[in-house]
Design a protein that fits this description.
Helix content is 80%, strand content 0%. The chain is mainly alpha-helical. The protein has one domain. α2 crosses α4 and α6 crosses α13. The radius of gyration is 20 Å and the shape is globular. About 2% of the residues have low confidence. It comes from Amphibacillus indicireducens. InterPro entries: Chr_Tranpt_l_chain, Chromate_transpt.
Length: 395
């Protein structure tokens, strides 16, 4: 018994060390993170095979929340159970969350919101999201039908500026995908793998997920506590957004800027700074929380937006084996992924482009930074440095 516990403890320590190293070095956003995971977990350490990894990525893309983080949590679960999944999440996500809270503290302490360097960071955000749009469009909209789904999502989210627009666009795209692509992937090889989670644990996590989603708005309406309102806003955002950190931007903008908790400039400054740190983009909320209420607000926001992702991936994994090979599920996923492209284009235009690009000089810097990312294939951190230097020179 003791040997088994020691072996489990060593495995958990191994998971934390490996994920912490990835959390400290994984620049480039969710698509790049999935590449890092494949190299580390599939090719180098062989914690799972190629097909199981791709299926796990597909599940994470289908669920709301940060796809790369949920994939990492799922791998942690496969390696070390529920505890392994939580450890994998903390190792990968905490470094960037702490870095962004330090940045928020520096920003509010020294009042550098209007500096030229910060303007450069806002322009960086334009280039990064533009690159993300192209990358996702190539993979998620390969034919006319998927392009039309993306156009529909773009029009809905662009012309109907509410927090519910992208949710409705995604749900309708999933239904359309279910109808149009129901015969897709019938010939795909079936895949099997084991997840060390019981159905009971899955039911508990899913019950908690929906319980918080429905109960928090009611509770925050009954009890006037600012931290509870903040937790509710971020939990709802984490529960209802598809497509990762870039897509959470418009939803958070509606929740945070419209409510008057942050200015538009503070919001875009933080998003630009997020590109300078490794790890998942969802940790952007730690910056927001720290601006609103210091380090306590940062950690509370960080927990709130990731809690639904953790509950969902752990809750669904026990049932994934029976669902993953159904063509209808894959068809809906095609529609959802196409709609994410449209939402990204909408987010690129407003609020990112409309606030950061106002002169020909701004556009010139965007063109340079985008070329560094898309054509020269330079890492994100180097583009961030270039953006800051460009801001200091040009602004």
């Amino acid at each position: 018994m003791g040997n088994k516990r020691d072996s489990q403890l060593k495995r958990w320590i191994e998971i934390f060390i490996v994920t912490l190293r990835l959390g400290l070095t994984s620049f480039g956003g969710p698509i790049a993170h999935l590449g890092y995971f494949h190299e580390e977990y599939v090719e180098r350490r062989k914690w799972l095979d190629e097909k199981s990894y791709l299926d796990l990525v597909a599940l994470s893309q289908f669920l709301p929340g940060p796809a790369s983080s949920q994939t990492g949590i799922g791998i942690g679960v496969m390696r070390g159970g529920v505890v392994g999944g939580i450890i994998a999440f903390l190792g990968f996500s905490l470094p960037s969350a702490i870095a962004l809270m330090i940045f928020a503290t520096f920003l509010t302490t020294f009042g550098i919101e209007d500096s030229a360097a910060i303007k450069g960071l806002q322009v960086v955000a334009v280039a990064v999201v533009a690159k993300a749009v192209l990358g996702m469009a190539e993979k998620s909209t390969p034919n006319l039908r998927t392009k039309l789904i993306a156009l529909f999502a773009l029009l809905v989210t662009l012309l109907w500026q509410t927090a519910y627009a992208q949710i409705i666009a995604i749900l309708l795209a999933g239904v359309v995908g279910l109808i149009l692509f129901k015969a897709t992937d019938k010939q795909t090889n079936q895949s099997t793998s084991e997840f060390p989670i019981s159905h009971r644990v899955g039911y508990i996590c899913l019950t908690l997920f929906f319980g918080f989603l429905m109960g928090l708005p009611i509770l925050s309406g009954m009890v006037d506590l600012p931290w509870l309102t903040l937790f509710d806003s971020f939990y709802r955002s984490g529960s209802l957004v598809f497509g990762g950190g870039h897509v959470v931007l418009p939803l958070l903008e509606q929740e945070i800027v419209t409510a008057g908790w942050l200015t538009q400039q503070e919001f875009l400054t933080g998003f630009g700074a997020t590109q300078a740190v490794p790890g998942p983009l969802f940790t952007f909320v730690a910056y927001i929380g720290a601006i609103i209420n210091g380090w306590l607000g940062g950690f509370l926001s960080f927990l709130a937006i990731y809690l639904p992702a953790i509950l969902l991936i752990i809750g669904v994994l026990p049932f994934w084996e029976a669902l993953r090979n159904k063509p209808k599920i894959k068809g809906a996923l095609i529609g959802v992924n196409a709609s994410v492209v449209g939402i990204l284009i909408s987010a690129l235009y407003t609020p990112i482009w409309t606030n950061a690009v106002q002169t020909t000089t701004d556009f010139a810097l965007v063109a340079i930074l985008f070329s560094m990312l898309a054509f020269l294939k330079l890492p994100s951190w180097s583009v961030v440095i270039a953006g800051i230097i460009g801001g200091l020179i040009l602004f």
